[in-house]
Design a protein that fits this description.
Number of domains: 1
Number of strands: 5
Radius of gyration: 14 Å
Structural class: alpha/beta
Distance between the termini: 40 Å
CATH architecture: 4-Layer Sandwich
Shape: globular
Strand content: 15-25%
CATH superfamily: Carbon-nitrogen hydrolase
Length: 125
């Protein structure tokens, strides 16, 4: 599916309102929109930054249990990705903690992009 010509791809941008720490609620919103996208024969659905955890998670990213729960829900989203590409924001833990986007397809983690330039002023501190 990923090899389709770009001009024929059907895209769905799901601008959902995620709540910080509400993994179950955020997942339910994501699952609903994936279901709608599949019913509409969409090829790629994209969710907001940190859609799994809610934004901004602030100091919660320093709690190992928060990171683990976020990764469990990313696995659940991965299982929704049969016949569709899902792009979802989550907290990645790979030697360090990252604000990341996962690309999921056919129940596989295809790729991860770790955000490189994080703001460090005002509300972002």
């Amino acid at each position: 599916m990923i090899s389709k010509k770009i001009e024929k791809l059907r895209l769905y941008c799901a601008q959902i309102n995620c709540i910080v720490g509400d993994f179950k609620g955020n997942f339910e919103k994501i699952a609903f929109h994936v279901k709608v996208a599949k019913a509409s024969n969409v090829d790629i659905i994209a969710f907001p930054e940190l859609s799994v955890t809610g934004y901004p998670p602030e100091d919660l990213v320093l709690k190992p249990a928060f990171i683990e729960e976020n990764l469990k829900y990313l696995e659940k989203i991965k299982n929704l990705s049969e016949n569709i590409v899902i792009i979802a924001g989550f907290i990645n833990r790979d030697h360090e903690i990252y604000n990341s986007a996962a690309i999921l397809n056919d129940k596989n983690l295809v790729s991860i992009y770790n955000k490189q330039f994080l703001p460090n002023y005002s509300v972002f501190d």
